Amino acid sequence: GAMSRKKLQQLLDSLGRTSKHFTKSEVECLVKLFDELVAESRSRFAAVGFDCNMFRDVLYRMFGMMDDVMMDRVFRTFDRDNDSHISAEEWVGGLAVFLRGTLEERIKYCFEVYDLNGDGYITRDEMFQMLKNSLLKQPAEEDPDEGIKDLVDIALKKMDYDHDGKISIVDFEKAVRDENLLLEAFGPCLPDIK
Which portions of this protein are annotated as coiled-coil regions (predicted)? Predict the structure, then answer.
């Protein structure tokens, strides 16, 4: 592993106490997995955790995620302190929401993923970018941008409760509580739990 036994034990003690949604033994498995993945990566950052590329690899291997833009966004939501690495704590904390989060937690998480510039709103432009990115897999005769603009309009009609032309967390939460399928409206950012 990459961590010393002592550090591992300290980590398990503190995370075992504070972790939401995971039992002590699950925390232990997740931290060990983290440690193995970091060691296996032989990255020069191994001391601090996953960098974005390692994390993408994990999201792909473990959860079948393939969309680079979404994976980058997931990385940023996991990386709470914005140091461009995911520590063991951030890994366990992120996975708690990712795998076991309450609806409330998942709403907050998806909103953060979709709020590309972090200003507290999902704007037309952000929706357009994400939908364009997730839908441009099929070749189309007509201008695909038109179709995406239509989708953005539909999303706004459905989700912009205060009619200010963008979606706030309050709008988003109302929309998702009304219709759970809207949780991942702008791209797959949660694992398919089989």
Answer: none
Q: Between vectors from CA 187 to CA 185 and to CA 193, what angle results, nearest 5°?
A: 90
Task: Assess whether 113 and 88 both reside in one domain.
Answer: no
Range of the domain at 118: 103-182
At 73-120, the pLDDT tens digits run 999 999 999 999 999 999 999 999 999 999 999 999 999 999 999 999
> Cβ contacts of residue 132 below 8 Å, gap of 6+?
144, 145, 148
CATH number of the domain bearing residue 31: 1.10.238.10
The two structure tokens encoding residue 100 = 């076991």
Span between the terminal Cα atoms of the chain, in Å: 29
